[in-house]
Amino acid sequence: xxxxxxxxxxxxxxxxxxxxxxxxxxxxxxxxxxxxxxxxxxxxxxxxxxxxxxxxxxxxxxxxxxxxxxxxxxxxxxxxxxxxxxxxxxxxxxxxxxxxxxxxxxxxxxxxxxxxxxxxxxxxxxxxxxxxxxxxxxxxxxxxxxxxxxxxxxxxxxxxxxxxxxxxxxxxxxxxxxxxxxxxxxxxxxxxxxxxxxxxxxxxxxxxxxxxxxxxxxxxxxxxxxxxxxxxxxxxxxxxxxxxxxxxxxxxxxxxxxxxxxxxxxxxxxxxxxxxxxxxxxxxxxxxxxxxxxxxxxxxxxxxxxxxxxxxxxxxxxxxxxxxxxxxxxxxxxxxxxxxxxxxxxxxxxxxxxxxxxxxxxxxxxxxxxxxxxxxxxxxxxxxxxxxxxxxxxxxxxxx
Length: 400
Known about the structure:
The protein is of the alpha/beta class.
């Protein structure tokens, strides 16, 4: 147990700041490899989750989470996804299925709050993880050969850690990064995401994600049951303002129209939740002794559930690299080592960034030539299975 008062040195090799999904997954993966981890979280764990989003864990992400002890508590609450149906208004849809690439599923739809609970349960059971909730890193002293971290808990207690590596997985750009002098670039995409929990549906296919790309934006429908689903609608900020200013009845009619349903066939209990898509990029996302992973290093638009699965690939890659460094006695806190790690990850990040940013823009083009090119592309994808398989592997993060 940690001391209730005072300050002391706590022996740890890796400190992870941020006990969200990515930070917890990283800590669990390292612990399963025999590397002790201190996991720091500013909020008190055990509080009810407020995140109303719904994610799709890819099949490969789910398999990895199973190996590090997370998914057992999730299975009763997840919805397997066997197909993704993508269409553009006025064009025939394209369907991608798991069996085309030999997987049991493409992924699993799960509520963010339930995923957080599963991670917390797994973290608390793991003896190689020292969890400090209600705590924050007050300062980092790098004037000595081994830099130290001063940790302050909300009880007023403090302690000092001297890890080889600090991993920042806080899900957002924090004051810690600013204090450490990281270069942070901010770009407003001009887009927002509306999350709407739909009820009373009659045309939901429980194991299929439906995505529609068009001038109205990107609509992704994640099933919860045969009559309920979560809609994530990515659109321009001005369009989002206009939609939210309408009366609830008009909002429901517009959503029904966009989904191709009759007015009055859907409902929702809660008001739509809005997220403005402002991208923060930490460049480079490392310094000597510190590395940034997950959404703090890259903020991805919510297209095809790419952001979280990319962050899990960051964590898996970092774990493999740290295990190898431990075995060879390599200094994994050095600038050169961290630079090499991120050089390996850069191609994956660029690939996902282009997919999530450029594809919606392409489908927003309304001129006849662009529509003709897109529909020709759809017909080609429909007729050639090898192209569909390549697109699926690309979306899942496989190297082609």
